[in-house]
Design a protein that fits this description.
Two copies of one chain form a homodimer.
Chain A (H helix, E strand, L loop, with lengths): L9 E4 L8 H10 L4 E5 H7 L1 H10 L3 E9 L6 H21 L3 E5 L9 H21 L3 E4 L16 H14 L7 E6 H4 L5 H7 L4 E6 L1 E2 L10 E2 L8 H10 L6 E3 L4 H4 L3 H15 L1
Parallel strand pairs in A: 1-2, 1-10, 2-3, 3-4, 4-5, 5-6, 6-7, 7-10
Antiparallel strand pairs in A: 8-9
Helix pairs in contact in A: 4-5
Chain lengths: 280, 280
């Protein structure tokens, strides 16, 4: 697959420039000639939802996705209901911000180490949300996380699992048009010996593609990611595979890394653009 | 499955008491009433191979497995040949120490991020070793590592991959009786949604079962493990699954954890015995 010749599909996930406010990030996109941004709910709330909508419009920037819904497993029905309500608010925010994709980080093990029931709670939680999301024009994107986060963040750890859920739910809710899909972040899936066959299975329900790097030694378990080109992931090969199945949407760059967070945002954005053209 | 009523199958992997010499570890086993130990090549070398053999005999302790062979991928044929020679020395040591199991940590990505060719080098490396190992009564146990180690330690990250390799190699070398198998460490496989079906596929070629814990937050990427009972793994359920497929060999406790390493060895061994009876 050829290198990109422009950055028209590149989206700045705002956690990459963590110390920027939402205003700074949106304006930073415009100054850098970028038309897409991936937003996080906590940062949008800090800026104010209406103010964020105005900033997006004024700077001609669109939202590729909103992070994040999910966190379904909980010990009690009351807590699981609360999680559904929180996800409904996230869906409302997607609609207001003009993005059709809510990224789901599905949640970890709730109690007594019962990973199977946690996985069932995830499935049931997504099923519960589908009608609400569809009525508001929002799709639910299951993002498998790297198995390092299986216990405390996401019991959905492979693209295979995510595809199983999406295919089953889209069948169960076949009156809607593909309400559930997957979001593929190279950091989370690159190690998986089945990743290329699962990318094929995700044809028609891949809602997002995220880039960053796996660097060694891993600097931290959470702030673990590197800039594209600094690590071990065959990013272009993965992009080629995703595009061969028809994905032509925005490509978000999402990097959690203390050193990058401590750098000036505009420099990070310029390096991100360079590396996107060079290695993605 | 019932709790154990004795520690007759419990094996101290000597890295659990990292600050003990091999002599101290073997004597520590005897004092604790344990009959098995899992040894590491570096620690055996520090003690001396012949001296270690004598200590094992004098203390009535048997070796459940030797860690480790592997690390097959390398950029040049000369370096891959060196890796084979190093593995042959490890096989010789297994024979001398009286264990039939060499644990393989297969190695990371060698160069240019080409994970597929690294995986092929692993397959070819194991195939090359089989006759040498079989002539010395040693079996090769592929240990899938957690995907956190995919880049720098082991491109074999799932039990499914390990089974694929073992089944193919045992077919290719069918004049021998099961020369290749898997070593299942709960830390490395617990998160995998296919783990229970893959444990079934490993029937007849499961050469080892290791216990420890996945604790959160992860204290470190390498010294990452916890004492059984302190984390999120369904250890007994995994043991039940492995035993249902016929595994009745030693159960090694292998914990890399700085806090545990800083504790007195005899206390660690006593706690290990308690937790083995309580949660394994």
């Amino acid at each position: 697959v050829a290198a990109f010749t422009d950055t028209s599909r590149l989206s700045l996930n705002q956690y990459t420039t963590f110390n920027w406010t939402t205003k700074e990030a949106i304006e930073g996109c415009r100054k850098a000639g970028l038309h897409w941004i991936g937003l996080w709910r906590d940062k949008v709330e800090a800026q104010g939802l209406d103010e964020t909508v105005k900033l997006l419009r004024d700077n001609d920037v669109q939202v590729s996705s909103l992070c994040r819904g999910g966190f379904f497993p909980a010990e009690t029905q009351a807590k699981r209901d609360e999680a559904i309500e929180e996800n409904e608010r996230a869906i409302d925010e997607c609609a207001t911000l003009g993005t059709d994709t809510l990224v789901l980080v599905c949640g970890g093990i709730h109690a007594n180490n019962d990973i199977d029931s946690a996985r069932q709670m995830v499935f049931d939680g997504i099923a519960t949300l589908i009608p609400y999301a569809q009525e508001r024009g929002v799709k639910l994107g299951i993002e498998p996380l790297h198995p390092i986060y299986a216990a405390d963040r996401n019991v959905i750890v492979t693209l295979g699992q995510s595809n199983d859920f999406a295919l089953q739910l889209n069948k169960d809710f076949s009156s809607y048009s593909t309400p559930v899909g997957v979001v593929i972040d190279v950091f989370h899936v690159w190690w998986d010996p089945t990743v290329y066959e699962e990318i094929k299975r995700a044809r028609g329900h891949t809602f997002g593609f995220h880039v960053c790097e796996w660097i060694t030694p891993l600097p931290d378990t959470l702030k673990a990611r590197g800039m594209m080109g600094n690590g071990h992931i065959e990013i272009r090969r993965l992009r080629e595979a995703v595009e061969a199945e028809g994905y032509d949407g925005p490509i978000e760059c999402e990097i959690f890394n203390q050193e990058i967070w401590d750098s000036p945002g505009a420099e990070v954005v310029e390096l991100m653009k360079e590396r996107y053209l060079e290695v993605c």
